Prior knowledge:
By secondary structure, this protein is of the alpha/beta class. It has eleven helices and ten strands. 44% of the residues lie in helices and 14% in strands.
Amino acid sequence: xxxxxxxxxxxxxxxxxxxxxxxxxxxxxxxxxxxxxxxxxxxxxxxxxxxxxxxxxxxxxxxxxxxxxxxxxxxxxxxxxxxxxxxxxxxxxxxxxxxxxxxxxxxxxxxxxxxxxxxxxxxxxxxxxxxxxxxxxxxxxxxxxxxxxxxxxxxxxxxxxxxxxxxxxxxxxxxxxxxxxxxxxxxxxxxxxxxxxxxxxxxxxxxxxxxxxxxxxxxxxxxxxxxxxxxxxxxxxxxxxxxxxxxxxxxxxxxxxxxxxxxxxxxxxxxxxxxxxxxxxxxxxxxxxxxxxxxxxxxxxx
Length: 302
């Protein structure tokens, strides 16, 4: 698919760019700052490829092409009962050290319940809650309603093949892209089931490269997790969490090779379910993008 490339009367070429928004839960709030910084410089992507939270925020933007409106929608939603009643699991191992003893005790009790559910159920949280969130933020609209091409990554369950949606049921495609296995149940689309696209492409730079035209630039945003250097896990759960972060980190580094520009807004130590610092995350995304604007504009003008 070609981007917005064109040739004017003096034969100078303006290239387009495909925006790849990675997964990372609450860390993905940085995507809102990325969109804001791009808009401040009148830079609109020719297409968006999104994984998980990147698919959701990318879709809301593709429907409006208004970064300020998207930010307002998300910030309002984060304060609603619907979001605050969403039971997102947290692991005590990854919590910050500034919690009170009561908070730690409460978290430990909550974990014991999660472990019991994990041993007897295929998922911890009903995916219908995510479906409702996506339906609300995307206002029930479809792929055909977006103002620029949108591509949503998922993984088919159980065969594990990557599937990219760009038409059909927008709400279910995004919900599937966010359906972390074990946390949410697989999402049925047609006669098949799909789960979190981040399993195979947490940073969808390779997918963006395939979609981009021959002259298009790929701009990838990595908001994935990294292991904390000051935390030494001493339980099985903690070690598994650490191992998954390491594996994710190196997979994203491999995928980043497909990007012309990589933006990494934040260290990524917070858990994916932590949406408690939106202003900080958004501003970090904006600042990291502003640093790369000169290089992006250079490539677009080359």
